[in-house]
Design goal:
Length: 211
């Protein structure tokens, strides 16, 4: 079942690799199809992953189809799908610059006009939780409020969107923004966007999310 979606997921995982957002089998991705979730398998290197390795689960996490175990971060994916109607795809990466921000436990401030309408204002960091736990999912959901991205403490980042293509794009955008911010921090003190601009751009973000 869901051959087209599985292929899309496989392509997205390879793109995550190509964009240096993950290595080996780290990170994971999924998309929601009705009451089912098509999700990457646990511990399979993306370069060796085939469509048959992709797992289908329901919204309670029961396996519907597949020979592999679903991603270790399945509880986080489910927490998002069960609480965010606008999220139909989730991309979770361990990229260098977003992870650097995540170990500082510092949010990515609103620094670039391009970012806020797409991710929402400051990208917050979740409270720490052990990978693969429901608690990690809850902590992430909390800081994802009114945002499409979150940094996961001492771990990585996650982006949500209506399509896998968009969730991947947001992950690349977030990584670039974190790179720009950390680079700027090395040579000076970054200046945030004016407050009224951030408010306006956040309004645009909320409006766009409706579509
Ligand atoms: Zn992870």
């Amino acid at each position: 079942m869901y051959e087209k979606e599985k292929k899309e997921l496989l392509d997205t995982c390879l793109e995550m690799l190509r964009h240096d957002l993950v290595i080996g089998s780290s990170g994971n991705a999924s998309l929601r199809v009705g009451n089912h979730v098509v999700i990457s398998p646990s511990s399979v290197h993306y370069t060796e992953m085939s469509i048959d390795d992709v797992v289908v689960i329901d919204l309670e996490g029961n396996e519907v189809e597949g020979t592999r175990n679903p991603s270790i971060e399945t509880p986080m994916h489910l927490e998002i799908y069960n609480n965010r109607e606008d999220a139909l795809a989730v991309v979770h990466t361990h990229s260098l610059y977003a992870s650097s921000m995540a170990i500082l436990h510092e949010p990515l401030p609103p620094i670039i006009d391009e970012i806020v309408p797409k991710l929402g204002a400051n990208v917050r960091v979740s409270k720490y939780a052990i990978p693969g736990t429901k608690q990690l999912g809850k902590n992430v959901l909390e800081v994802l409020e009114d945002r499409s991205a979150a940094l996961i403490a001492n771990h990585g980042s996650v982006c949500v969107a209506k399509t896998l293509k968009d969730a991947l794009f947001l992950s690349i955008l977030l990584e670039r923004a974190c790179k720009i911010y950390t680079t700027a921090r090395q040579i000076g003190k970054p200046v945030e966007l004016p407050e009224d601009v951030v408010e306006d751009e956040q309004d645009i973000y909320m409006m766009m999310r409706e579509f």
